[in-house]
Design goal:
By secondary structure, the protein is of the alpha/beta class. The protein has helices at 25-32, 39-51, 126-142, 172-185, and strands at 10-11, 13-18, 21-22, 37-38, 56-64, 68-75, 80-84, 90-93, 99-102, 110-113, 146-149, 154-157, 163-166, 191-193, 200-201.
Length: 202
């Protein structure tokens, strides 16, 4: 019976892939540089390196006979766009509220806000995250892709021209349920303000 001792088994190469294909050049190069170490040491380095990467959601790896380790990553992906009205930057934000990068993506729902630029790797505010969750739901139910965040509310323009104003905190399901009730029972209104206990209609 062949017994492999991890400390003396030398790993010569490390490969990396994710759900989109090969890992980025920077990460791939860093992983390739750890070759030439024992299996045990290589595993420890991989775990430390990958676990600290802000953009990795999950990871796994396996030993490939005779001298290779294959790593598979699940990379966080953008769910929303947070657009700054001051300098027109577009932040790609994941479901947890972390900024993954910058760039426009017309397929994602988004919110326009005024304020400071948010650095990559930083988390957005709770109110921004709440607003993005709301606009994501509005996109799903009403095909409304963008909202404007003010100091005290989120303004959304419906396809039929009605303006809906949401609060920046609360129960999302309750707010959306209230909106459905108003839309189903009342006609000829221009504004639905849901920031109060009883919706204000104009």
């Amino acid at each position: 019976m062949l017994v492999v001792i991890p400390r003396i088994l030398i790993i010569k190469s490390v490969s990396c892939s994710n759900q989109y294909g090969k890992c980025g050049d920077e990460l791939q190069e860093s992983l390739e540089n750890i070759g030439g170490k024992s299996l045990k040491d290589t595993k420890e380095i991989i775990e430390e390196m990958v676990s600290k990467n802000l953009f990795v959601k999950e990871y796994s790896y396996r030993y490939v006979i005779p001298d290779k380790i294959a790593i598979y990553l699940i990379i966080k992906k953008a769910k929303y766009i947070l657009q700054n009205s001051n300098n027109n930057f577009f932040a790609l934000v994941d479901e947890d509220g972390m900024v993954l990068g910058y760039g426009e993506n017309p397929t994602l729902p988004g919110v326009v806000f005024s304020g400071d630029t948010i650095a990559i790797g930083e988390s957005i505010s709770e109110k921004q995250h709440f607003s993005l969750d709301l606009i994501s739901s509005m996109y799903y139910y009403y095909q409304v892709k963008k909202g404007i965040m003010t100091e005290d509310g989120l303004e959304v323009r419906m396809p039929d021209g009605i303006t809906v104003i949401f609060p920046l905190e609360g129960d999302r399901d309750v707010l959306l349920g209230g909106l459905r009730v108003v839309l189903s029972k009342i006609e000829r209104i221009s504004t639905i303000d849901l920031r109060f206990k009883n919706p204000v209609l104009k």
